[in-house]
């Protein structure tokens, strides 16, 4: 894995020199730029993406830079398709370093920052995390607004591939770049450990979050509830759900589903019914999903009496039932 080289201190004339060079660089590109059709009076982001990718595939990075500056001035922001000309082959990857230089010459502020962020995201989609870290390295050295969000695509890619040691090292790189890891960064690691039911490592991540004075968010709780449910620690999972609700955090259907599935795996049918009934009445959509889903599962498990308890409650609350659920309810009411 790449590591950041020592951050350099820029000279006082660096930005003014870059501005002059960039002006000349993109002025020449503007004179040479030709589109297949006349430039539209009201260009769109899709139009600019098409032109950027055409120039990128031709290796014309001067035009890429010109278009990236112009599109922002025209109110056409970059999209996830902006750097699709980069692919996972040798000739395309050879463009990365020259492209970094091109982006360094863009108009400062949002234009340059967003372009760098989307380049990082594109490289991570290609699973080129080393190259993405090289981009971040440039941003850190040159003062281009590197922040915690820059590292998120890298952490997402590494943790999806379960490269946990490398993900931990990325947190160290964040600190080296002067960026404090936020709770989102830790959540990427936490989710993997919880999905695997590795509560020891999950607890270690939580202790890191607390030690750094960060506040757990909804995704932190979602991961912990998943881990506790997978490990059969259902009482702990229910306590966490209660803490989420009492803390005003949004509880997703998937969070409730993790607890329900853990209970059903252990044959705790009555407890599952009491669980969803205890948390009803706060979010109508969540009630429809959780009560309806559990009723369907209980019917499939031939636990019709328990299912009818839920369906009767749904009827009282005037919650929407699916077609099959409603037919079952009518025939058993």
UniProtKB/TrEMBL annotation:
Would you identify the family this protein belongs to, as annotated?
A: Belongs to the PPR family. P subfamily.
Domain Pentatricopeptide repeat-containing protein-mitochondrial per the UniProt entry, residue ranges: 111-208
Q: Where are the PPR repeats?
A: 112-146, 147-181, 182-216, 217-251
Annotated signal sequence is none
Tell me the classification of the organism that encodes this protein. Eukaryota, Viridiplantae, Streptophyta, Embryophyta, Tracheophyta
Q: Which organism is it from?
A: Corchorus capsularis (Jute)
Gene3D superfamilies per UniProt:
Tetratricopeptide repeat domain (1.25.40.10)
This protein's UniProt keywords: Repeat
UniProt protein name: Pentatricopeptide repeat-containing protein-mitochondrial domain-containing protein
Residues annotated as transmembrane:
none
């Amino acid at each position: 894995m790449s590591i950041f080289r020592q951050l350099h201190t820029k000279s006082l004339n660096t930005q003014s020199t870059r501005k002059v060079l960039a002006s000349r660089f993109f002025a020449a590109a503007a004179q040479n730029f030709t589109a297949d059709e006349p430039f539209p009076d009201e260009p769109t982001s899709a139009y600019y993406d098409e032109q950027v990718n055409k120039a990128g595939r031709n290796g014309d990075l001067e035009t890429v830079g010109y278009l990236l500056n112009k599109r922002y001035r025209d109110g056409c922001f970059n999209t996830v398709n902006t750097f699709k000309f980069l692919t996972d082959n040798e000739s395309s990857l050879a463009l990365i370093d020259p492209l970094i230089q091109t982006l360094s010459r863009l108009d400062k502020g949002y234009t340059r920052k967003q372009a760098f962020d989307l380049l990082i995201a594109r490289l991570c989609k290609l699973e080129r995390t080393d190259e993405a870290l090289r981009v971040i390295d440039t941003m850190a050295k040159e003062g281009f607004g590197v922040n915690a969000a820059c590292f998120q695509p890298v952490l997402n890619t590494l943790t999806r591939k379960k490269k946990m040691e490398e993900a931990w090292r990325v947190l160290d790189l964040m600190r080296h770049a002067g960026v404090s890891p936020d709770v989102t960064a830790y959540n990427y690691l936490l989710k993997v450990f919880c999905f695997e039911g590795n509560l020891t490592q999950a607890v270690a991540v939580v202790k890191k979050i607390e030690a750094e004075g960060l506040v757990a968010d909804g995704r932190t709780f979602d991961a912990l509830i998943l881990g506790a449910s997978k490990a059969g620690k259902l009482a702990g999972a229910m306590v966490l759900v209660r803490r989420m609700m009492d803390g005003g955090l949004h509880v997703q259907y998937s969070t409730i589903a993790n607890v329900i599935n853990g209970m059903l795996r252990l044959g705790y049918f009555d407890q599952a019914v009491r669980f969803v009934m205890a948390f009803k009445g706060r979010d109508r959509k969540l009630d429809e999903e959780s009560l309806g889903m559990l009723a369907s599962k209980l019917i499939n498990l031939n636990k019709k009496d328990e299912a009818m308890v839920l369906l009767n409650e749904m009827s009282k609350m005037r919650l929407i039932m699916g077609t099959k659920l409603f037919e079952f309810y009518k025939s058993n009411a």
